[in-house]
Amino acid sequence: MLGEFRKVERDDLKKLFELKKETQNSVNGIFIKTFEEQLQWYENTLKSNETYPLIYEIDGKSVGFFLVRDIDWICRHNIFSYYLFSESRGKGFGKSLLSDGLEFCFNVLNMEKVYGEVLKDNIISAKIMKSCGFSLVGIRKNHVFKNGNFIDVLHYEILKNEWRKI
After folding, report:
1. For position 14, what pLDDT does the model report?
2. What are the φ and ψ backbone dihedral angles of 24, each rounded to 5 degrees?
3. Using an 8 Å Cβ cutoff, are 100 and 2 in contact?
4. pLDDT at 147 > cutoff 60
5. Class of the 4-162 domain?
6. pTM, 2 dp
7. Nearest to residue 134, comparing CAs of 111, 116, 152?
8. Where are the domains of the chain?
9. pLDDT-derived band of residue 30, with 50, 70 and 90 as boundaries?
10. Mean pLDDT of the chain
11. What's the Cα-to-Cα distance from 109 to each of 105, 114, 160, 165, rounded to whole Å?
12. CB-based contact 152:140 (threshold 8 Å)
C-alpha cells in the first residue's frame, strides 16, 4: 500500500466540495450544488452502513477521495468513485489510490465484486481502471446528459479472484 485511507471528517468537506465542483463535467453523477447539501450528504453517510467516504493520504498529505457506496452485504458487491485533488494529478497517484481502494473493498469489506462507471470521454480514468485489472462489461448508450449532450457510460467490473495487488 503506497498510501493510507482515513474516514472523511467534517474539516475535509470544503475541499471535497471544491473537488466536486471542479470535476462535475468529467464524472457520472449529480453535482451537489451548495455546501449545505454537502453537509447533509456527510451527515447521511455517518448513518449509513452502505457508504464509506475515504480520504487517501500519502506521506500525511491528502491526494484523493475514494467513495465506496451502494454496498450489497448479501451479494457482496459495491460501486465506487474516486477523485484526485488537482495538485495530485499527473503523478501516478490514481493507480495507487484505486489499487488500495480495491484492497479495502476486497480485504476489509470482504466484497466479491467491485464495479465502477466512467464517462466515455474520461480516457485517463478508463485507462487506470484497466491497468488495475477491471474488465469493460458494458456500455450504457446516451446514459448521461451533460452540457447539452448525451454521453455514453462505460461499465467496468472486477472480481476478487481477478484482482492482484499492484
Report:
1. 80
2. -60, -30
3. yes
4. yes
5. alpha beta
6. 0.86
7. 116
8. 4-162
9. low
10. 87
11. 5, 11, 11, 16
12. yes
Quote the cell numbers at residue 48.
449509513
The answer to whether the CB of 45 falls within 8 A of the CB of 69 is no
Residue pair 64/93 in contact by the 8 Å Cβ criterion: yes
Q: Is 96 helix (H, G, I), strand (E, B) or coil?
A: helix
The half-sphere exposure of 87 on its side-chain side, counting CA atoms within 13 A, is 7
Question: CB of 56 within 8 A of CB of 97?
Answer: yes
Q: What is the mean pLDDT of residues 85-98?
A: 89
Tell me if residue 13 falls in helix, strand or coil: helix
User: How do beta strands 77-84 and 113-119 pair?
Assistant: parallel
Scanning the structure block, which residue is given the C-alpha cell 447539501? 37
User: Which amino acid is located at 127 in the chain?
Assistant: K
Q: At what angle do helices 123-131 and 93-103 cross, to 10 degrees?
A: 50
